[in-house]
Each structure stands twice: as structure tokens, then as C-alpha cells.
Design a protein that fits this description.
single chain, alpha/beta, five-stranded parallel sheet, elongated
Length: about 240
């Protein structure tokens, strides 16, 4: 198939294998889409945070809210740039709140490109086990537990793939959802609604002006009729006056 742009959001708890999945997805993407050449980009939030911590001399194990916020701003800006240059852009983060995912969905609408959300819904205990094996960027277990409680899972549809068990068979599902997302780019519904509202306002305005015009014409006609009647009455009265 002919490829167009698609943004893929990888979401899930820390330790669910998002970054590993993203790398394998990049390696398999051309085969999944039956395309010889494919340009891809991987935006990893953890990687951006590491870069910022090194730049500002913050220990890798220390949480810094300002760096966390800045990393997400940078990730979104990179995504904005990459969707114009690459066929596939993979953004890898926890995205545990819907509000974190919404800007990327809106970006796809604005650009009229494909959107695919992949939720690695791996058991929290397994995620904690995998997280403990990390050499860097380990997340405290209580943080993972709180994130699990707060996680707002996406609703299932053609643009969302939920993976509970990651095995070789999962790539058939990825292939289906990825091809669907590419074949059905999002539409800028907000722009369409605004255009519809503007058209409605224009129609209403024209209708109002027409109504006012008709009302004025009617009033003018009534006034002219009244004037004519008054003149006729005046003429008749003068003709039949006993003083003539």
C-alpha cells in the first residue's frame, strides 16, 4: 500500500516494555505495511528526561517536576516536526491520563494523518518486576502502584490496540490496526464544526437582513398607501366643499 503519515502513541505503566516494543515496531514497520522504504522516528520521553537531567546536572534517580514538564513539551514539539518528515512517528511514554494523549490526537486531526494508540496493558506486578531489572531510570514501586490506580485506559476502537500479552502473534493485530489507521486519517472535526457554525451564522445573517428588508418594504408600501389615501381624501374634500 501507499504510505501516508501516522502517529503512534505507546502507553502503559513503567516496565511494560514500551521502548523495546517501539524499537521492534520500527524494525518491522516496512514489512507490516508491505513497503520497501519507510521513514520512522521514535520519540522516547525517558530519553528526553535523561538529556535534560544531564544538561541541568540533576541526578538521574531524582524526580524533578520542571524537567518532567519540559520533557513533555519537547516531545510534543518534536512530534509536530516529525509528522511532517516521517511516515511513522512513535511517541513512547506512560500517558496514563487521557488529557496527556489528547494533544497528540488533536495534532493528527489538524494534520489529517493517521492515529494509532497502543496500550501495553501488562499486569502491574510484572511491570514492577521488569522495572526492578532496569540499570537506569528505575521508577519507585509505590509510584507505579499510584499510576496504576489513576490510569485512564483508552476506549477500544479501530484506532486503539490493547495488548495484554506480548508475543509473536500480536504483530498480526498491530498490522491490522496500523493499516487501518493509515487508510483512515483523522479529520479536523473541530475545524469542520467551526466552518459549519460560520456557514450557519452567514445564513442566519442573510436571512435576518432579508427579513428586515422585507419588513421595511412592507412599511414603506403601507406608508405610501396611507399617503395616497390622504391625498385623495384631501382632493375630494376640496371639490365638494360648500364654500366653493
Amino acid at each position: 500500500m501507499k504510505c501516508c503519515n501516522c502517529l503512534i502513541l505507546l502507553m502503559g505503566l513503567p516496565g511494560t516494555g514500551k521502548t523495546t516494543f517501539a524499537k521492534e515496531l520500527k524494525a518491522r514497520a516496512a514489512d507490516l505495511l508491505s513497503i520497501k522504504t519507510l521513514t520512522t522516528a521514535h520519540i522516547e520521553l525517558d530519553g528526553i528526561e535523561r538529556e535534560l537531567k544531564e544538561e541541568f546536572h540533576v541526578p538521574s534517580t531524582e524526580y524533578d517536576n520542571e524537567i518532567w514538564r519540559k520533557a513533555r513539551e519537547m516531545a510534543y514539539k518534536r512530534a509536530e516536526e516529525m509528522v511532517l518528515k516521517c511516515d511513522l512517528v512513535v511517541v513512547d511514554d506512560n500517558f496514563y491520563y487521557e488529557s496527556m494523549r489528547k494533544p497528540y490526537f488533536r495534532l493528527c486531526q489538524k494534520r489529517s494523518i493517521g492515529f494509532l494508540g497502543i496500550f501495553l496493558d501488562i499486569d502491574a506486578s510484572k511491570a514492577k518486576e521488569q522495572n526492578s531489572l532496569r540499570e537506569q531510570n528505575k521508577v519507585k514501586e509505590n509510584v507505579i502502584s499510584r499510576m496504576e490506580e489513576k490510569f485512564e485506559a483508552p476506549e477500544i476502537n479501530e484506532n486503539i490496540l490493547i495488548i495484554k500479552h506480548w508475543d509473536s502473534a500480536v504483530w498480526n493485530k498491530v498490522k491490522y490496526h496500523l493499516n487501518y489507521s493509515l487508510a483512515n486519517p483523522l479529520k479536523d472535526t473541530i475545524k469542520e464544526v467551526e466552518e459549519a457554525k460560520e456557514k450557519s451564522r452567514e445564513i442566519t445573517s442573510k436571512s435576518l437582513i432579508h427579513s428586515i428588508d422585507m419588513a421595511i418594504r412592507q412599511e414603506v408600501n403601507l406608508s405610501l398607501i396611507h399617503i395616497c389615501r390622504c391625498r385623495r381624501y384631501a382632493v375630494c374634500r376640496s371639490r365638494w366643499s360648500p364654500y366653493h
